[in-house]
Structure formats: structure tokens, C-alpha cells
Amino acid sequence: QVQLVESGGGLVQAGGSLRLSCAASGRAFSSKSMGWFRQAPGKERVFVSRIHWNGVTTDYADSVKGRFTISRDNAKNTVYLQMNSLKPEDTAVYYCAAYSSGGMYYGSSYNYWGQGTQVTVSS
Known about the structure:
The chain has no helices and 11 strands. By secondary structure, the chain is an all-beta fold. The relative contact order is 0.31.
């Protein structure tokens, strides 16, 4: 069992930065790949990024590549999403999730989810 709690969201101007954190409970954290998804108003939840359990292999959606960086600290049971050069279209609720199996881009491949944190980017 893994419980996930996101934090770090807020209101920021376009071009600004935010760092999201996802704190996990449970000893299984270090053996799980972790992902970030986001859901904008009126839209489906979509993949943002994923980090392998080893902390080395990472993947990003094309829309955030070069601007967002995912990382993890297994000693702190925490995964991070550093978001730079934010754009109004990044506005969404951001969720972290623990990967289970299947394609990394699909929400159904993740079996534990946090409650989400709101990110709003003003123009």
C-alpha cells in the first residue's frame, strides 16, 4: 500500500517556476517508478513525466520536455517535479502516481494516486 500527498502548487506568472513534491508512505516506494499527470479544466488527465525506480531513467511528454524535470529522493520517499518557463497552458491539477504495469502514458498503468495540487499560470 502506498499513500501519496502532493504539495507545492500555486499561482505563478508565465515564465515563472514551481516545484511540486509528492511525499509517499510505505516501504515499497523505492522499488516503484513514479509518474506525474495533469488535468486541465474540461480535459482528460494526461501524462506529464515518469521516473524509474532507479532514479536515472526519465520520460517526458513533448509539451513539457526541456522545461520540466522529474527527480526523486528515495531516502525521503519523495518525488519532485521542477517546472520552469511555465505557460498558461500548464494550468491544471497535477497528480503524482505510483506505476504498476503497462504503458507509462496511461493512467490505468498506475495503481496509487495522490489527491492532486492546483497549478495556475497567469499570462
